[in-house]
Amino acid sequence: MNEKPAIKNRKDIHLLVICFYEKIRKDPKLGPIFNSIIVDWESHFELLTDFWESQLLVKRTYHGNPIAVHQEVDTKMNHTITSEHFGLWLNLWFETLDELFTGEVAWLAKNRAQKMSTMLFLKIFEHRNQ
């Protein structure tokens, strides 16, 4: 039986991002949100690879503001983003990680995603009440 590889480099993270967003785009609840907001998927993949590379491999490639971006998405979706959306996102993230990788960096990717999903949802909720 072949052991799944560890996440070691940008190429691994790029594979993770592409496989993950394949699932997101097909998901009945998440797909319509992402597919209506993102017009250039290739640049989105690069941006998210930069983001996760900065989170998991401590490379300073990402220079964005995820809080503002998610607040803007919620506004565009008429404030209909819920904790269920974040839970579905997180489940697909974990599933994709488990299919592709093993090891400490994969665990870190799960841990960071879990913390970020909670924080981003709270920031969206706070933004609605301003």
The 3D shape can be described as: globular
| Poorly predicted tracts of residues | none
Percent of residues in helices: over 70%
Q: Which structural class should the secondary elements be placed in?
A: mainly alpha
CATH architecture name:
Orthogonal Bundle
Beta-strand fraction estimate: under 5%
Count the helices. How many? 6
CATH names the topology as Globin-like
Give a short account of the largest sheet: none
Question: How confident overall, as mean pLDDT?
Answer: 93
Distance between the termini: 54 Å
The ordered string of helix (H) and strand (E) elements is HHHHHH
Oligomeric state of the chains? single chain
Rg calculated over all Cα atoms = 15 Å
Q: What is the CATH class?
A: Mainly Alpha
The total domain count is 1
Total beta strands: 0
- Name of the CATH superfamily: Globins
